[in-house]
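Suppose you are handed a protein chain with no further information: no name, no annotation, nothing but its sequence. What can you learn? This example shows the usual starting point.
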Amino acid sequence: MPVKKKLSIFPALITVLVICLLTYQFHDQLLGALITERKGTTNLAHAVDKFPLGAKKINSFDTTVDAKGRIHLAVDDGSARYYLWSDDGGALWANPVHVSDGPSSSIPGNDVRFAVKDLRQVIVWKDKGEFPGWGRAQVAISNDAGLHWQPGENPVEKDSNFNQGYFSLLADQNNFHLLWLDDRKESGQDQQLRYSKSSNGLDWQEDTLVDNSVCTCCWLSAQNFEGKVFTLYRGTTPRDMQIASFETGSKNWKMMARVGEFDWDFTGCPHQGGDLAVSEHNTTTIFHSVVFTGRSEMLGLHYFTSKNQGESWQYRHPIGNTSARYVDIATLDGQAFIAWQELFEQQYYIKILQINPEGDASAHYQKQVPGNAYPRIVTHDNTLKLFWLEKDQSNLQSLQMTTIPTDTSSTSSSGIIL
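A reasonable first move is to predict its three-dimensional structure. Written in C-alpha cells, the prediction is:
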C-alpha cells in the first residue's frame, strides 16, 4: 500500500479511537450512577421469610390489621377458603379455619376479599361459573372472630345469571361496604360498577349503580374517610383511573377527578388497576394513589397525591420502570409506603418506596423473587408486613411474609434489600 494511502487511514483510526474513548467514559459514568442508586436501596435478601400456611398452594389472599393489632389473612386455594390470624406480628399464626368449599375463580387482581368489624368478619370471593372467567359473588360470615363461618347471601341474589368480580370490601364502625364489577349489561365491551352495604354481612341493601361504563377486568381499590366511601377504578373513555365517592345518607355517588389525565385511548383491558390510601399528618389529610397507564410515552405506574379528598390530584413522579405492575399502598404516621413488582435485566423484584409527609422518598427496599409475586403490604406497630406469592421449582405457589422495620421519624434517605 502506498505511503499516502497509509497516512490517510490515520485520521479515521483516530476518530474511531476518540468515539470508543467517549463511549467508554459515558458507560463508566452510567454504570457508576446505577451502582450509586443501588447502594441507596436496602436489600431484603437476608430478611427472615415466614410461611403462614407452610408449603400450601395459594391462588389468592387478602390481609388487614385491625385496631387491636391482629393481622388477619383470608386465603383461597381454588377449591376452598381459609381464615387465619396472628396476634404477635406474624411470628406465630393460628391454625387455618375452614371457611367454605367449592371451586373459585380467585386469582391475583380478582382476589378473595376480607373485612372485619368488631367480632364480625366477612369474606367475599368469586365462584367458578359455567363459562371461563364467569362467576358470582359468594359471601361467608363469622360472628365469633373467625372461629366459625356460615354462608351469606349474594348482594344481588335476585338474579342468578349475573357475573360479578373484582371485589373491594371494607368496613367502618357501622357497615360493611362492597363494590364490584357487574356484567348485567352483557355488552362485551364494558361493565357496571355497583355497590351495596350491610350492617351485619347477612342482609345487604339493594345494590346501587356507581358508574354505568367501566373497564371489564381492572381491580378496584376503596377507602373509608370521615363517613365517606371512596373508590378508585378504571373508566372506559379514556382508559384512565378515576375516583367516585359516596357519603352516608346520600342517594347517589359523586363522580370526581381522574387520577392522572393520561387520555389513554385503548380498546381492551390492561388487567391493571391501582391503589388508594389515606394518611394524616398534623392537620393535613393526604390521599395517595398509584395508577397504571399503558400510554406509550408514560407506560407504567405513577404516583399522585390529593389534599382535597380526591377533588384534584397533583402528579408526583413515576414509580419504578416501565415494567412496574401490581401496586399496593400502606400508610403509617403520616408516611406512605408503596410496594410494587418490576422486572430488571430478566430478574423480578418486589420494591418498596417510603415517602415522608413532605412527599420525598426517604427509604427504598427491594427483594428478588423468582417470578410474578403480587405484593401486599400492611403496617403493624412500627413495621411493615410484606406478603407475596412465590412459586417453587415444582410450580407450587405459596404465600410468604417478611417483616421490615421502619423509621418514620427519619427524614434522611436510606435503602434496604430484603
